[in-house]
Design brief:
Elements lengths: L10 H18 L11 H7 L5 H22 L1 H8 L3 H14 L2 H10 L5 H19 L5 H29 L5 H27 L6 H18 L13 H12 L10 H6 L4 H9 L2 H13 L5 H12 L4 H32 L1 H21 L6 H28 L6 H30 L1 H12 L1 H35 L7 E10 L2 E11 L4 E5 L6 H9 L6 E6 L2 E2 L5 H7 L1 E4 L11 H9 L10 H11 L1 H5 L10 H15 L3 E5 L7 H16 L3 E6 L2 H7 L2 E6 L2 E7 L12 H8 L1
Parallel strand pairs: 3-8, 3-9, 6-7, 7-8
Antiparallel strand pairs: 1-2, 1-4, 4-5, 9-10
Helix pairs in contact: 1-11, 1-21, 3-7, 3-9, 3-10, 5-8, 5-19, 6-8, 6-19, 7-8, 7-10, 8-19, 9-10, 9-16, 9-18, 11-21, 14-19, 14-21, 15-20, 16-17, 16-18, 17-18, 17-20, 17-21, 19-20, 24-25, 24-27, 25-27, 27-28
């Protein structure tokens, strides 16, 4: 393939460097196949890392577990105090969930680009402790509902950032063990809380009010112990290490140019763009949906307490003992299998998803079985084993899920996961309530848990994509460093750089690994038959559609996931073929609409910009009050091109300039394109006519079936007739 790139830095050179760094990036991110077999605390000592954050987070888990356990264990006693039914508690959970929908996003916005997750955890857990004590003082059902809703809000806030914080505190080689350790400590805390609740309600004969007051004080002490917790920053043990490895390879330790901070800020993802960026990751999308399905089972714990009280006549202390046994089983499973999880993740991340999904399914089956046994020993066995196997999936899947996104986006994952889980919990609450009334609690729990098993199957499906998604994170960081290094060494950067771009409409993929670059002030003709992917490529560049993989950079800055309106402000404008005007509006009103795309500081120049456009198109000035629909096809194209005179973009994308127009009209439009280009605007022109391409552009890219087949001087197309379809050949030979 004949290549003639307009810049020193090419897509090929970027791709070659990214490929060369991929294995090193895998090793730095802990998924390179090499297994670190050192024990957890030995590794921390060798790496100079303190175990304090583990114990601090464990202490913070005390406040959560104590209050949650007390609320679950004493629900029947609270119901008798206020004359409440199980439906009240499910409704209470529903109200809390609905109100807390906004909390995860608010917290993610708070910590976006600012690593202060530890502060959020400490503050929300402190509020949680206070509310735990107040819980024991309520005198009405309304007050109980109010406190419970606040409890739920603080839990949502803490849950949004605690997972990402845990992931970033320690290196990838120990993350499954760290998360498992914290989960195990949560079980221990739950065991202590369960035993403590049983002790307070049993031998000490405290009411549920006394239980909450005592647990509130204990929880506060745990939070005070954790005040030394600090946020380490985003991705310090994976993303940043990949970045540093790339810098070492590029010998960029010294004399690197400072990045353009204004451009960095202009291209920084907004909240909505960050969420969309995460949603575009295949394995993450599947896991979020799996979390929603799994959320159906959240209300099961409350119904299980009523089932134990009704079928087996177990009081609060006896239910506490049952939970104690299950917790011990879960603790043992963490101790035995957590190191195995770390090794599997380092050697084969996909396998970890498969194993976790299979274990979760087996645990769910055991949980269903416990609803239909009639002897307490059988209940103990099923409950303990089900808890152990289901619990094992959490740490492994959390580590895997958080690893497929760049460090700064991990708080957003926590927010999205929380919302999806809440959606599932809301649906589960409604489902359980309806089934329990009509079919009884055992069948309701069994059906809900059975549906929830789909989440485990989805986790296994996510494993199919996780390797590619992990590599995409590495490639993004390495590419960013390569571009920054090239800029610091004075190499010319393309104004627009597209690398390995894929694009799909639903399940139909249209673009396949497109590489393309456009220099400042260049005119590039994009050729190909209908269906070749030309218009789709323009949509991806302008932001009207978001690519499924690959990158789009403007002067080296990543704009792949920016909204279309932000790309317009950065200087990218599109004139869509046949859809460039508002037919019902007059010509002058169309021009006024274009001025809304001007930056705020240039709005005062709108009138002069309109006059500039009318001067370039005298025919439009004559028809300024006519509806755009009344214009001829050529005049409508002129009106669409007038957008360039108003917005003065750095890059103008024109789709099908000559389609259906007479040759003379096309010649006039080409003169306008040259005028626009002479003002410094680069132009990418989608065309089917080779004659038009040869007339206006010195460089052409030929696309076929979603791929670039030729990229070089337009005159060389005559020497490559095999690349052209008959429609082009006929145009050449005329």
């Amino acid at each position: 393939m004949n290549q003639s790139k307009p810049t020193d830095m090419t897509s090929d050179s970027i791709g070659a460097f990214v490929e060369s760094q991929l294995q090193a990036g895998r090793e730095q991110s802990g998924t390179g196949g090499q297994v670190d077999r050192r024990r957890l605390f030995r590794l921390l000592k060798d790496e100079g890392l303190s175990p304090y954050p583990i114990f601090a987070l464990m202490a913070l888990g005390v406040s959560d577990a104590l209050a949650a356990t007390a609320a679950s264990m004493t629900a029947p006693d609270i119901s008798r105090t206020f004359g409440l039914t199980p439906e009240f508690f499910t409704s209470l959970a529903l109200v809390g969930q609905v109100i807390s929908f906004a909390v995860p996003m608010a917290v993610a916005r708070l910590v976006q680009n600012r690593p202060r997750r530890a502060m959020v955890v400490l503050v929300t857990q402190g509020v949680w402790c206070l509310l735990t004590g107040v819980h024991g003082l309520v005198t009405t059902a309304a007050a109980l509902m109010f406190i419970s809703v606040l409890d739920r809000a603080t839990t949502s806030a803490q849950g949004t950032v605690s997972g990402p914080l845990m992931i970033d505190l320690y290196p990838p080689s120990v993350r499954v063990r760290v998360v498992s350790f914290l989960s195990a400590s949560g079980l221990v805390t739950g065991l202590v809380a369960t035993g403590f609740t049983g002790l307070l309600t049993g031998p000490l004969q405290l009411s549920w009010r006394g239980v909450f007051l005592v647990l509130g004080v204990v929880s506060l002490l745990a939070v005070l112990f954790s005040l030394g917790l600090r946020d380490p920053g985003y991705g310090v043990h994976d993303t940043e290490k990949v970045r540093q490895a790339a810098r070492r390879t590029l010998d960029e330790a010294e004399n690197a140019a400072e990045p353009d901070q204004a451009m960095v800020k202009a291209t920084r993802l907004s909240m909505s763009e960050a969420l969309r960026r995460i949603w575009m990751i295949p394995s993450m999308r599947i896991m979020l949906l799996a979390g929603m399905v799994g959320g159906l089972q959240v209300p099961v714990a409350t119904y299980l307490q009523f089932h134990l009280a009704n079928r087996f006549s177990l009081d609060a202390s006896e239910r506490s003992l049952l939970a104690l046994v299950a917790g011990i089983a879960g603790l043992l499973s963490y101790v035995v299998l957590a190191p195995v999880g770390d090794r599997i993740f380092q050697r084969n991340p996909q396998l970890m998803f498969y194993v976790a999904g299979a274990l979760g399914m087996f645990g769910a089956l055991l949980s269903i079985g416990q609803m239909f046994v009639y002897s307490v020993p059988a209940l103990v066995v099923f409950n303990a084993l089900g808890t152990a196997f289901v619990g094992l999936t959490g740490p492994a899947l959390m580590v895997g899920t958080m690893s497929v996104v760049p460090g700064p986006l991990r708080p957003h994952v926590g927010a999205m996961a929380g919302i999806f889980a809440l959606l599932g919990s809301v649906a589960g609450t409604a489902l359980l309530g309806g089934l329990a009334d009509s079919m009884g609690i055992p069948v309701a729990v069994a059906v809900t848990t059975g549906i929830g098993m789909i989440a485990q199957l989805m986790s296994m499906l996510a494993g199919k994509f996780v390797r590619r998604d992990l590599d995409a994170v590495i490639e993004e960081v390495v590419e960013e460093e390569y571009v920054a290094h090239a800029a610091s060494r004075g190499r010319r950067l393309p104004m627009l750089s597209i690398r390995d771009l894929d694009f799909s409409y639903g399940q139909t993929q249209v673009l396949f690994g497109v590489d393309l670059a456009v220099a400042e002030g260049e005119i590039v003709a994009l050729l190909g038959v209908n269906g070749a992917g030309k218009s789709t490529l323009l949509r991806a560049i302008s932001g009207l559609g978001i690519s499924t993989s690959g990158s789009i950079r403007l002067n080296g800055h990543d704009i792949t996931y920016l909204d279309a309106e932000r790309r317009t402000r950065l200087g990218i404008t599109q004139v869509p073929g046949g859809k460039a005007v508002f037919g019902d509006l007059s010509v002058i009103d169309n021009l006024r609409c274009y001025t809304f795309g001007l930056p705020d500081g240039e709005r005062r120049a709108a009138a002069s910009r309109i006059e500039d456009a009318l001067a370039a198109f005298p025919i439009l000035a004559q028809r300024r009050n006519l509806p755009a629909a009344a214009l001829s096809g050529g005049e409508q194209q002129m009106l669409g091109l007038a957008k360039a005179f108003i917005l003065r973009p750095r890059l103008l994308l024109i789709d099908e300039l000559s389609l259906g127009l007479a040759p003379k009209v096309v010649d006039n439009l080409l003169d306008v394109v040259r005028e626009i280009n002479s003002r410094g605007t680069a132009v990418m022109l989608v065309e089917q006519s080779v004659n038009v391409a040869l007339t206006v552009a010195r460089r052409a890219c030929f696309m076929e079936r979603g791929q670039v087949r030729f990229d070089g001087p337009t005159v060389e197309l005559r020497d490559n007739p095999e690349l052209l379809r008959s429609v082009f050949l006929s145009g050449v030979t005329r």
